[in-house]
Amino acid sequence: MLLDTNIVIHACQPDGDWLASWTTHPNAAIASVTRIEALGFAGISAEEETVLLDFVSASPTYALDDGVIERAIKLRQQKKMKLGDAIIAATALEYDIPLVTRNEDDFKHIAGLDLRNPFAITP
Predict the structure, then answer these.
(1) CB atoms < 10 A from the CB of 77, how many?
(2) Which tops the pLDDT comparison, 121 or 106?
(3) Is the pLDDT of residue 114 over 90?
(4) 24-50 residue pLDDT tens
(5) CA atoms of 87 and 100, how far apart (whole Å)
(6) Cα separation of 15 and 74, whole Å?
């Protein structure tokens, strides 16, 4: 399963332990763009950067290869969307894996994309 950047950020917060079943799952991975998104915020503290860097460095990562690039282009041609979201969705589609995200609205228009939202699951 592919972890969207928002899941990584939430999991790295002090109260994010409850996401461990998702983030430590043997099949959990990130897209290469998640490293840029998670660490690229202006004003990120040194402590936040360390926690996020540790997480993304330890995570299996799907590279931005030609297949992902072509799918991301097609997704952006179909409907206006952020580049990072297009790359993440394209990665999940290219490797036929579920996308774990809190932001379902950013992706629900994409045919064939298997979305999982841990925030919507009632314990």
Answers:
(1) 9
(2) 106
(3) yes
(4) 999 999 999 999 999 988 888 888 899
(5) 14
(6) 37
Give the Cα separation of 36 and 56 in Å (integer). Answer: 10
**Is 27 in contact with 1 (CB distance < 8 Å)?**
yes
Q: Which two tokens stand for residue 118?
A: 């841990």
As a whole number, the mean pLDDT across the chain is 94
How many Å apart are CA 11 and CA 27, to the nearest integer? 16
Contact partners, residue 117, CB within 8 Å, separation at least 6: 100, 101, 102, 104
DSSP letter assigned to residue 1: -
List the beta bridge partners of residue 29.
2
What is the domain partition of the chain in residue ranges? 2-120
Name which of 15, 56, 21, 25 is nearest 38 in CA terms: 56
Q: Which CATH code is given to the segment(s) 2-120?
A: 3.40.50.1010
**3-state DSSP helix/strand/coil % of the chain, to nearest 5:** 55, 10, 35
Residue 123's pLDDT is what?
Answer: 59
Instruction: Indicate yes or no: pTM above 0.90.
Output: yes
Closest CA relative to residue 90, chosen from 33, 18, 16, 15: 33
